[in-house]
Write a structure and sequence with these properties.
The complex is a heterodimer of chains A (118) and B (107). Chain A is mostly beta strands and 118 residues long. Chain A is 0% helix and 52% strand. In chain B, strands 2, 4, 5, 6, 9, 10 and 11 form a 7-stranded mixed β-sheet that branches. Classes of the chains: A mainly beta (118), B mainly beta (107).
């Protein structure tokens, strides 16, 4: 049974870089698409971007200048970096698996809350 | 970006009722729409994809319909476990976007 687990600091200072990792167990990131999605507390969902198993990426234009998603197949992990964070980046961050070659999400991590505050 | 608008934002209904949630896209997305259920403190859970295809393991009281710009999620015979927030998501074009959510409450 495939599982996704986010990890990383729960508190990041303004202007710094948010870094999170998603570890995939029971399956391999060497196929398919893998996304990051976030949800500010009490609000809706925002797609951040994805990485394809070949290393190709696609980002939400609203965040593109600050986002990098990378993968490490040897560790079966993919990561998110979001630079120059502000309080508006405070959110629960989810990693998720695309269903096959489609772009809906059939498996999600439990999510991790990242707070941006000094 | 394609805007997804759900209605209503909040819905109150008793156990056993039939409810319908609507999702409208700002432009045609064919049938590239998914529905998710989210409970407090949990990640969203896929219910429906390609507008009307039921994800494996999802109870048959959930159904989806629509194409183009208007879509509906229907839950027949509401169960206590169904009270949650529901989101639609378009995956017709980048960036993928979600509706603002519909909170389904017990009446």
């Amino acid at each position: 049974q495939v599982q996704l687990q986010e990890s990383g600091p729960g508190l990041v200072k303004p202007s710094e870089t948010l870094s999170l990792t998603c570890t995939v167990s029971g399956g391999s990131i060497s196929s398919g698409y893998w996304s990051w999605i976030r949800q500010p507390p009490g609000k809706g969902l925002e797609w951040i971007g994805y990485i394809f198993y070949t290393g190709g990426t696609n980002y939400n234009p609203s965040l593109k200048s600050r986002v990098t998603i990378s993968g490490d197949t040897s560790k079966n992990q993919f990561s998110l970096k979001l630079s120059s964070v502000t309080a508006a980046d405070t959110a629960i961050y989810y990693c998720a698996r695309h269903s096959g070659d489609d772009s809906f999400f059939d498996l999600w991590g439990q999510g991790t809350l990242v707070t941006v505050s000094s | 970006d394609i805007q997804m608008t759900q209605s209503p934002s909040t819905l109150s209904a008793p156990v056993g009722d039939r409810v319908t949630i609507t999702c409208r896209a700002s432009q045609s997305i064919s049938s590239w729409l998914a529905w998710y259920q989210q409970k407090p403190g949990k990640a969203p859970n896929l219910l429906i994809y390609k507008a009307s295809y039921l994800e494996s393991g999802v109870p048959s009281r959930f159904s989806g319909s629509g194409s183009g710009t208007e879509f509906t999620l229907t839950i027949t015979s509401l169960q206590p476990d169904d009270f949650a927030t529901y989101y639609c998501q378009q995956y017709n074009s980048y960036p993928y976007t979600f509706g603002q959510g519909t909170k389904l409450e017990i009446k």
